[in-house]
Amino acid sequence: MITRKAIWLLPLLLTLILLLQWLGWSRESAVADYLQPRATTSGNPSAGITGGTLPPAGPEPVEAYSVVTERPLFIIGRRPIQKPEVVVEKAPPAKVDLVLELFGIVATAEGWHALIRSPEGESRKLAVGDEYQGWRVAEIEPDRVLFARDQRTEVFNLRTFPEQAPAAGKPVRKQK
User: Fold this and answer.
1) CB atoms < 10 A from the CB of 154, how many?
2) Taking burial as the number of CB atoms within 10 A of a residue's CB, which of 21, 100, 101, 147 is the most buried?
3) Nearest-5° angle of CA 41, CA 42, CA 44?
4) Mean pLDDT per 10-residue segment, the chain (176 residues)
5) Is the pTM higher than 0.85?
């Protein structure tokens, strides 16, 4: 008879203890108590903090998940995926011809400048080091311009005129 009363009394006693613990409890105070650092007996205040702090906000860095990418989850044996080697052959540089008309070379205080005209009729003034259609002006001389690209060079000579021009006022005779 005593054992029957004890069996019924034990759950009633446990329920009473649980009820007494919950009476003074609130969610805000429980979270605040959890976040407070524990007091330590040593002089170092951070020595007693083993828990009670929240993890850092935000997702973990991508490097933390490198194991998943190195050893995929859904591959049998979780071996790294073997990627085929791709060999990229460097193609020889395309042979691009430079098309322009050199119609003047001018000497200024800054140095020599080449006056060129594109096939579309656009005129430009270039100095040494300037680029035009992927070509670099390597050298400008009084009668020619040297363009360079990848180990290739193109030379454009200034169009020359006859040495002797007819004197002003003298008629030029045509020969028959």
Assistant:
1) 15
2) 147
3) 125
4) 78 86 71 66 53 66 77 74 76 70 88 90 91 91 90 84 61 56
5) no
Q: What is the DSSP letter of 33?
A: H
Which pairing describes strands 101-108 and 111-117: parallel, antiparallel, or unpaired?
antiparallel
**Structure-token pair, residue 115:** 């006056």
Count Cβ atoms within 10 A of the Cβ of residue 169 and give its class: 0-12 exposed, 13-18 middle, 19 or more buried.
Answer: exposed
Beta-carbon contacts of residue 81 (< 8 Å; ≥ 6 apart): 72, 75
Query: Do the beta carbons of residue 128 and residue 106 sit within 8 Å?
Result: no
- Residue identified by tokens 């860095």 is 61
Measure the CA–CA gap between 137 and 100, rounded to whole angstroms: 13
Secondary structure class of 105 (helix, strand, coil): strand
Contact between residue 100 and residue 117 where contact means Cβ atoms under 8 Å apart:
yes
**Measured between alpha carbons, how far is 79 from 66 in angstroms, rounded to an integer?**
14
Q: Output the six-digit token pair for 171.
A: 């008629």
